Amino acid sequence: MQHPPLFPFPIPSPENNRRNCVIAFTTPQNYAGRLSELIQLKGWTPLWCPTVTVESTQQTISSIHHYLHPISNEPNSLLEEFSALAFTSRTGITAFSLALLINHTPPLTPHGEILTIAALGNDSELLDQDFIAKMCENPERIRILVPPIATPSGLVDALGLGQGRRVLCPVPSVIGLDEPPVVPKFLEDLSKRGWIPVRLDAYETRWAGAKCAVDVVIKSEEECGFDAIVFTSTGEVEGLLKSLKEFGLDWEMVRRRCPRMVVAAHGPVTASGAESLGVGIDVVSSNFGSFDGVVDALSHKWKSLENQES
Predict the structure, then answer these.
(1) What are the residue boundaries of the Tetrapyrrole biosynthesis uroporphyrinogen III synthase domain, all occurrences included (predicted)?
(2) Exposed / middle / buried, residue 170 (Cβ in 10 Å: 0-12, 13-18, 19+)
């Protein structure tokens, strides 16, 4: 398994005065490098334990391309029938970009109604000029929307009333795990606001297998093996629990082995999902537009504990 790149220069001194903290995190590979870097900037040691894999497949790319290419001798693509394109993840944007690469012409004609493209937090960085140019020769037809609250419900609020308009929603197809309620609720909320949401399985989220819990199991057997674990999605939590079960363990056993472990969630949606699976959360990032929020929340938690102990 290829681990996220480490910095080529010495890690700075830890922000807390206990020791060099070890932070386990369960993000898939496409997010691992970013979070690993932020953990190291705090002077901590990252321990990457991906519990899900997230990737595009030939089938998912073909599903996206279906909306980008004219079919049945029609002059326009199916995307012309939509008023909005709503991304709930960075991976969805990346998958859509891959499909755009194999499209010979932009799916939107230069003249027509504005298409609103919405994305959460730092994910919107991928909706750059190159992405817009591949969507339409006329950038005036594209409106980028970034909700002030980086959650699916925040995205629904920012889109406003649908009034019977259609919104294309590139979301994951979940394989080997129960689908978390996030996407179904997102689609339901859009419907309640008068939109006609069309689900598009743009990529696959799969359980990474029992091996993903090996480092957590080994470290949990050591005295103070790791100090915190960070979850960035509900699927990651379920993936870890499923893997622990393969080793004859459950979450409470890990908690007993690591009584000082801090469990952190990237935002309230992940925290709620973890709690529903029986995994208690100690720290929730209030700034969840980027991973800086959850790392800063961990730092604040330990500083508070140090003040109580001093």
Answers:
(1) 34-288
(2) buried
* Global pTM exceeds 0.70: yes
pLDDT tens sequence across 10-54: 333 444 444 578 999 999 998 899 999 999 999 999 999 999 999
CB-based contact 87:119 (threshold 8 Å):
yes
- 164: which residues sit within 8 A by CB, 6+ positions away? 194, 196
Chain segment 168-221, per-residue pLDDT in tens: 999 999 999 999 999 999 999 999 999 999 999 999 999 999 888 887 888 777
Cα–Cα distance for residue pair 145/155, rounded to 1 Å: 9
